[in-house]
Structures are given as structure tokens and as C-alpha cells.
Hints:
By secondary structure, this protein is of the alpha/beta class. The chain has helices spanning about 25-35, 50-60, 70-80, 95-110, 180-190, 220-235, 245-255, 275-280, 280-285, 295-310, 320-330, 340-350, 360-375, and strands spanning about 5-10, 10, 45-50, 90-95, 115-125, 130-135, 150-160, 195, 200, 215, 240-245, 260, 265, 265-270. Helices cover about 40% and strands about 15% of the residues. It has a four-stranded antiparallel sheet. The longest helix is centred in the N-terminal third of the chain and has 16 residues, at about 95-110.
Amino acid sequence: MNDVVYFNGPVQNGDFTLAERPCKAAGIRLAAALNALLGLAPVPHLWNTVTIAGDVRHRCAADRDTVGRQQREERTLAAKYAPGPPPAAGLLTDTDPQVTALAMTRVQALLADGTLAVQDLPVGLCARCGHMAGTGTAGDCRACGHATIRAARRALLVFDRTAHGPVLERDDFHASGARTPDHLLHIARNVPRLLVLSRTRAHGVDLAPLGLEGMVLDPRAGLHVAVLAAAGELGSVRPVMTVTENAAANVAAYGAPFRRHGAMRLRYALHGKIPYATAASGRLYEVHRAQEVRDLFTGWYLPLCAARERSGVSAARIPALLKFLRRAYLARPATPPGDLPTDLRHRVAAGDMRWVTDARALACALSDRENTTGPTGPTRGAP
């Protein structure tokens, strides 16, 4: 049974491709790099398809009567990877059968033990389409654009966070040797007392079996279930979700009841954003005579640096990081000395990312990667 396995936090299936917006692949690339260093096989790429934007996109499509919502999501996901092939380990979305089945299992168990409840609460509903707009009445409907929101009451799936301890703690972060993200703990402590985990969507984990007609599981909870489902298929008991600090601030509280299933416990590996516009400059690689490590730098090393610099990789740091990688690449040994590979694996498994700026450890990682993938590694443009 695998212990630690890294998975990307499910990426929203919006109107973009990974070639156009490589920043969207940062978590995918980070998870792949860390798993490879642990000697693990590739894992599926995880995607979030339960979005209002997806509902609107499908409803407005000219072929909506001949192409179903699920099929549209699948087509959009396939286009993400063009012109390259899809990932070898496949894709997993937050509405795939194994995710839906696990989500309903978890929800029913949490209802049974009192962690979750179904309560009749006041909400704002769109007067035209019935989309739930929350307790306020201001603003147009996000689902159809109608201007009138009416006050109503309806049954909702809720989580009373005050009855079950902190929704986020230091131990929920997989990051040995890193500072505690106190700002995220503060944000989690100040979310509403009663968190609504059911949403009006045309696509998602259907909650009708619970008597919540026309509602699906909140996608912020569904993201966590997708990771647990992927981990369960691989036999991992310590799945780790790569996620930006901003994303963690938005989803952590809603995912709190869904971080555990049996022996499994999900944790977060934070990473910062990457200035890919700066890193893509051809002039950068000419000046530093580093063309041979260009793809290695953008597709492998920068995601690892983003896990070291969780507030984001500064554009001003790009030249120095490139030079550091090139020196380590040139110094990589054919066979790393002594216990260095074992020590590196221990640090990767513990979430200790300080090694990415340690020349000897980085050279060891490069040697390991080359022995695994060959001297060129993945092809240009691959996630």
C-alpha cells in the first residue's frame, strides 16, 4: 500500500487550454514531479466540472439538444491537452461514477453521525430560473442574469462548524519545516458558522436521494471527494492535494468534513503562482546559455520552486533560479552518492521542500529524473 501520494487540486474546466495558460497546470506538474521522485507511477489529472460557468456554457450552446452536459465537459477536457496526448494515467472529474458513489457514501455517513444535517433555511432564489443566490437579495442571478431575487425557504444540506472543532489546523498542511500558514487558519476560523453544502447546479453529485431536489453537493466539498476517490483506487492512505493559498482559503472550510474516509486522511501541499510570462522569454535562455534546460525549468523546476515559495515565485527571481538549475544540471552525477537519494525521498514524502535550493539535493533529483524519464524528459508543452 502506498503511503504519501500527491494529487493536483481539481482544476476548473473553463475556456482555456494548458498550452495557453500553463499556470493552470502548476499543481498537476508539481504532483507529477513529487510522485516521480517517490518512485510512484503517474496519477490521474483531477478536474472540477461542477461550475455555474459550465451550466451557462452548456445552456447557451447551439448543440445543447444533441450534446449532453457530461459529453460537453469531456470534449472540453480533451481539448485542454491539445495538440499533445492526454495524460497516461487518465483524467478524473468530480462527477465521475466512483467520485459520485464515494460522495454519497460520505454524506450519508456524516448525516448519520450528526456532522451534517438537512435544515429548512431562508434563501434568495432567482425569480426566473430558481438558482439559489444565498441569503441576500442584491445583484443579478449568476446563472441566468435575471435581476429579481425573491426571498424563500428551502431544505439545505448544512455543516455547523462550531459543533465539530476547528475546520483547519496546522496538521492539515503537509509541509515539514515550513512556517504555519496562520492567515489561512484565521480565514477558516471566520467563515460563517453554518456552511451550506448543497447548491443549485445543472451538473454535479445529485442530492435528490436526500430529498434535496435540484441540488448538488457543493463543488468545494466535491473537490476533496475526488482526491479521496483517486487515492482509494491507488491504495493511498495519505493523499496530499497540491493547492494555491488562495484556493485553500476558498475550499478548506467546506472540505473539512470530507478530508477523512476510513484510514485515509487528506492534507494540503501549498504552492505559489508562477510567472510563466517571464519564464517563457526566449531571450532569458539565450542570455544564460540555458536552452537545454528550458523545458526542464518551466515544466519541472518552477513548480517545485512554487512549493518552496508558497506566496508565489517572484518574476525577479527567475534568472537566478534558472542559473541555479543549470549549474545543478551540469553537475548532476550519474549515480548520486551515499544516502542522498534516500534522504531526498524522505524529504519529498514529508513535504519538506527546502531541498529545491540545495545544490547537492537538486543534482540528485535531476539524476533520478533523468534515469527515470531519459535525458530530455517530457516533451515540450506536456503538462
